[in-house]
Write a structure and sequence with these properties.
The complex is a heterodimer of chains A (348) and B (397).
Chain A (H helix, E strand, L loop, with lengths): L1 H26 L2 H11 L6 H10 L6 H9 L6 E3 L5 E3 L24 E2 L4 E2 H36 L4 H14 L3 H13 L21 H31 L2 H8 L4 H13 L1 H9 L1 H14 L5 H10 L3 H29 L7
Antiparallel strand pairs in A: 1-2, 3-4
Chain B lengths: L5 H11 L1 H16 L5 H5 L4 H23 L21 E2 L10 E2 L10 H37 L1 H16 L2 H8 L2 H6 L1 H9 L1 H15 L3 H23 L19 H29 L3 H9 L3 H12 L1 H24 L11 H9 L10 H26 L2
The chains are: A mainly alpha (348), B mainly alpha (397).
Chain lengths: 348, 397
C-alpha cells in the first residue's frame, strides 16, 4: 500500500510539472505577453515599447529558464533595464541585489505577484479558495445524500414505475448544464419581473454571510448537474447488487425488504458511487466557474476567469497547480477508498 | 397591430415549424413501418424513451437544416437590429414592418433589438453542424490511439494513458481559456493542433483499407487512392487558410473555415478525445481475450486487421451509446464556450452566447435568455434519452 501511494504521488508530481509547463508555455506565447504588457503599461504602446517593457521585466528569457525561475530551481533574473532601473524576480519593494534572495519560486513558497489584483498570489488563492470551499461544502451536503437516496430508491426495484420516473429525472438533471439551470432558477425564483422572488439572483452577499436566500440557488445549480450522474451510477450498482445470490437467499429466508436493502445491499451498492463522487470533483470545478460567474460569487472560479482573461501568468499558474492537485488527489483518494471499501481488490 | 396572446404565439411558432413537422412525421412513419428491417435503428422504435429522444434530436436536426440551408423557419434575420424592438416582450408586433416582413417578434427582442425566436432557431444550425462533427473527429482520434493501447498493452499503453490522463486532469474551462483566445489564434496554435487532430481520420481510413485489402493490392490501391485523395483534399482545405500560418496549399484550397470556428472545433475535439481513448482502450482490453480474436491470430491476420475488423465492430454497441452521450456533452461544451464569450463571434446566434447576452438583464427581462436555455436543454436531453434507449435495446441482443 505504501509503495502504491508513493508511486502514485510521483506520477502526480510529474503530471503537475507537465501541466504547469503547458500552461506556462501557452501564457508565455508572444501575443499573450504583448497583451499583458499593454494591460500593464498602456494600450497604445508601440511594438518597440512592448518589447523593451517585456525585456526589462525578464519576460523575454528562454522558456525553460523562466519556468525554472518560477519553480525556484534557477536563480531569479536580475536585469538592468534600458531605463537604468535594476529589476529582479526576487526583489520585494526596495530590495537590491545584495539583500534579495537568490531563488524565489514555488519551491521556496513564493508564488509571485498577481498583475491584475496587485497582490500576493498566495493570499489571493487562499482567500478565494476558502470562499469556494464554503460553496463546495454545501454542494456536497446537498448533492451526495440526495443523489444516493434517489439512486438507491430507483435501483432497489429495477423496472418499476418509481425506477422509471426517478431515472428519467436523473437524466434530466444530467442534461441540464449549470448555465441553463442557473438561468431557469433565477427566472423562476429570483426575477423581479415574473418570478416568485423567493431567493436572490446574486450571491455576492453570501461571501460574508451565507443565508438560504442568497446561497441556495448557486448551491442547487451545481448540485443538480452532478446529482443525476451519481444517482444513475448508484442505481446501476444497486440494481446489480439486488440480483445477487445472497440477496435472493436473504429474501427466501424471509428477511423483510427494508432490512435487505439497508443491511445487505447498501454497503456493496455504495462502492461504485464512492469512486464516481470522488471523480466528480474535476467536473464540479467546471460548475464552480460557471456558477460563480453567473451568480457573481467571487471565489476560485471567478479568479480563474479574471486571471485567464487578463493573462495574469503567475496567478493562472497557481490556479492550475491548485486545480490539478485537486483533481489528482481526488483520483488517489478514490483509488485508495475503493480498495478499502472492497476487500476483494488488492493493489499491486 | 395588436399584441399576440400566448396561445397565438404558440400557434404561430407551430405553424412556422411546419416543414419540420412534415419531415418528422415522414421519418417516423417510414421507420416504424420498416422497423423490423432496419437493425438496431429499427429496434429503437420499440423503446418509448428512445423514440422520444430520437424525436427531439431529429426535431433540432431538421430545424437546423431548414433554417440553415433553406432559410425557412426563421422569421427575421438573426443579426439585424430593428429600432424600437429592444427587450420587447414576446408577441410584440414589429415596428415599421414592411409588406414582406414577418409582422411579429414571436419570442420578443433581445437587448440589441434582434428577434429571439430567429436567433434560437438559427443557433441550432451551428450546434447541429459542429457537435456531431467534432464528436466524430474525437472518436477517430480516440479509436486510432485507443485500439493499439488496449491491444498491445505494456509500455505503449502506459505512455498513451499518461498522456490521456494529463489532458483529463486539466480543468476544461482553464484549457478553453488558454486555447480559445484571439491571441493564441495569432500564433497559429489551433491550426497546428488541427494538423495533428484532423490527420487521424486520414490515418484511420488508410489503415482500415490497407489492413483489409492488402492481399489484393489492385483493389487496395484504387480504394486508397480515391478515399485518401478526397479526405486529403478536405484535410488540406481545412488546415489551410489564406493570411494565416499555413498558406502552403492556397492554390487547392476548397473552402475557408473561420478562424474562431476552427479554434472552437479543435479545442472541443482535443478535450473529448482522451475520454474516447479511455473507453476504446478498456473495450479493446476486454475484447482481445475473446475466442474470435484468438482465431484471427491463429489464422495469421495482422494486428491492425484484428483491431479494426474484429475488435472494433464488436465494440460498436457501447461506442454508439457513448457517441450519443458525447454529442450532448459537446453541445454543453459549445454552450460553455459561448457562455464565456470565447471562440465564435459574439453576435453569432449560438445558444451559449445568446444565454450569456440574456443573463445580464435576467431579473428584469427574462425572455431573451430562456428560449436558448430551453433549446439547449431539450437537445441534450433528447440525446441522453436516445442513448438510454439505444443502450436498452442493444443490451437485449
Amino acid at each position: 500500500m505504501g509503495s502504491f501511494i508513493l508511486r502514485r504521488f510521483v506520477v502526480m508530481c510529474i503530471t503537475a510539472l507537465c501541466l504547469t509547463f503547458i500552461v506556462f508555455f501557452l501564457t508565455n506565447l508572444y501575443p499573450n505577453l504583448e497583451k499583458l504588457a499593454k494591460n500593464q503599461g498602456n494600450f497604445r504602446m508601440s511594438d518597440e515599447a512592448v518589447a523593451t517593457f517585456l525585456e526589462n521585466r525578464g519576460y523575454l528569457q528562454a522558456l525553460p529558464v523562466k519556468y525554472g525561475q518560477w519553480l525556484g530551481v534557477v536563480p531569479g533574473y536580475v536585469i538592468e533595464g534600458s531605463d537604468g532601473k535594476v529589476r529582479g524576480k526576487c526583489f520585494v519593494a526596495d530590495d537590491t541585489i545584495e539583500t534579495a534572495p537568490m531563488f524565489c519560486g514555488i519551491l521556496q513558497g513564493d508564488w509571485g505577484q498577481s498583475t491584475v489584483f496587485k497582490d500576493e498570489v498566495f493570499s489571493i488563492i487562499g482567500k478565494r479558495l476558502s470562499l469556494t470551499g464554503k460553496l463546495m461544502f454545501w454542494v456536497m451536503i446537498v448533492m451526495i445524500p440526495s443523489a444516493l437516496l434517489v439512486g438507491v430508491l430507483a435501483g432497489m426495484r429495477e423496472g418499476s414505475r418509481s425506477d422509471r420516473s426517478l431515472s428519467t429525472a436523473a437524466i434530466l438533471t444530467t442534461a441540464t448544464p449549470e448555465y441553463v439551470s442557473g438561468v431557469i432558477f433565477i427566472v423562476v425564483f429570483a426575477s423581479s419581473a415574473v418570478g416568485l422572488k423567493w431567493f436572490k439572483g446574486s450571491a455576492t452577499s453570501a461571501m460574508e454571510s451565507a443565508t438560504i436566500e442568497n446561497f441556495l440557488l448557486p448551491v442547487l445549480t451545481i448540485a443538480l448537474y452532478g446529482m443525476g450522474y451519481i444517482a444513475r451510477m448508484t442505481r446501476a450498482s444497486m440494481a446489480e447488487v439486488m440480483t445477487a445470490q445472497y440477496i435472493r437467499t436473504a429474501r427466501l429466508k424471509g428477511v423483510s425488504f427494508i432490512n435487505i436493502v439497508l443491511k445487505h445491499a447498501l454497503r456493496n451498492a455504495l462502492i461504485a458511487p464512492f469512486t464516481v463522487i470522488m471523480l466528480q470533483f474535476p467536473w464540479l470545478l467546471n460548475g464552480v466557474v460557471i456558477v460563480e460567474t453567473l451568480f457573481n460569487y467571487k471565489g476560485f472560479g471567478w479568479v480563474l476567469v479574471q486571471a485567464a482573461g487578463n493573462n495574469d501568468i503567475e496567478l493562472l499558474l497557481a490556479v492550475s497547480v491548485v486545480s490539478v492537485f485537486v483533481v489528482l488527489i481526488t483520483q488517489l483518494i478514490s483509488d485508495i477508498g475503493y480498495v478499502y471499501l472492497n476487500p476483494r481488490i488488492k493493489v499491486t | 397591430m395588436e399584441f399576440l396572446s400566448w396561445g397565438d404565439i404558440i400557434l404561430r411558432i407551430l405553424a412556422q415549424l411546419i416543414p419540420v413537422w412534415i419531415c418528422l412525421i415522414g421519418l417516423f412513419g417510414f421507420s416504424i413501418f420498416y422497423k423490423r428491417k432496419l437493425g438496431l435503428y429499427g429496434k429503437l422504435f420499440d423503446s418509448t424513451i428512445g423514440m422520444i429522444g430520437f424525436a427531439i434530436v431529429m426535431f433540432w436536426v431538421f430545424t437546423g437544416f431548414f433554417s440553415g440551408v433553406f432559410d425557412l423557419i426563421i422569421t427575421h434575420d438573426p443579426l439585424s437590429q430593428v429600432s424600437g424592438m429592444r427587450n420587447k416582450v414576446p408577441g410584440m408586433p414589429m415596428r415599421g414592418a414592411e409588406e414582406l416582413d414577418y409582422p411579429f417578434y414571436l419570442l420578443g427582442g433581445d437587448n440589441l433589438a434582434r428577434d429571439v425566436f430567429s436567433r434560437v432557431m438559427a443557433g441550432s444550425t451551428v450546434v447541429i453542424l459542429i457537435a456531431p462533427l467534432a464528436t466524430v473527429f474525437a472518436f477517430m482520434a480516440g479509436i486510432t490511439i485507443g485500439l493499439p493501447a488496449g491491444y498491445y498493452g505494456g509500455r505503449l499503453d502506459i505512455g498513451l494513458s499518461f498522456l490521456a490522463n494529463l489532458i483529463l486532469a486539466f480543468p476544461v474551462i482553464l484549457l478553453f481559456y488558454l486555447l480559445v483566445t484571439p491571441e493564441i489564434r495569432l500564433t497559429g496554435m489551433p491550426q497546428f493542433m488541427a494538423v495533428v487532430l484532423f490527420a487521424f481520420p486520414l490515418i484511420f481510413a488508410g489503415v482500415l483499407i490497407n489492413s483489409r485489402y492488402h492481399i489484393a493490392p489492385k483493389t487496395r490501391n484504387a480504394l486508397l487512392f480515391i478515399v485518401l485523395g478526397i479526405l486529403g483534399w478536405l484535410y488540406l482545405s481545412i488546415i489551410n487558410a489564406p493570411g494565416s500560418k499555413i498558406t502552403l496549399f492556397n492554390s487547392i484550397d476548397l473552402f475557408d473555415v473561420d478562424g474562431g470556428l476552427l479554434t472552437v472545433f479543435v479545442s472541443v475535439v482535443f478535450v473529448n478525445s482522451p475520454t474516447v481513448f479511455r473507453i476504446v482502450r478498456g473495450l479493446a482490453m476486454d475484447i482481445k481475450t475473446r475466442d474470435y480474436v484468438a482465431a484471427a491470430q491463429t489464422r495469421g491476420e495482422g494486428a491492425w486487421y484484428i483491431m479494426l475488423w474484429e475488435i472494433l465492430p464488436n465494440a460498436r454497441g457501447p461506442l454508439i451509446v457513448d457517441f450519443c452521450l458525447r454529442v450532448g456533452y459537446t453541445t454543453i461544451l459549445l454552450g460553455t464556450l459561448g457562455f464565456f464569450g470565447l471562440g465564435l463571434e459574439p453576435e453569432s446566434p449560438n445558444w451559449g452566447a445568446t444565454i450569456n447576452e440574456g443573463r445580464k438583464l435576467l431579473s428584469v427581462y427574462p425572455h431573451p435568455a430562456l428560449p436558448p436555455s430551453i433549446a439547449l436543454l431539450s437537445l441534450v436531453l433528447g440525446l441522453n434519452l436516445l442513448a438510454d434507449g439505444l443502450r436498452e435495446e442493444s443490451l437485449k441482443d
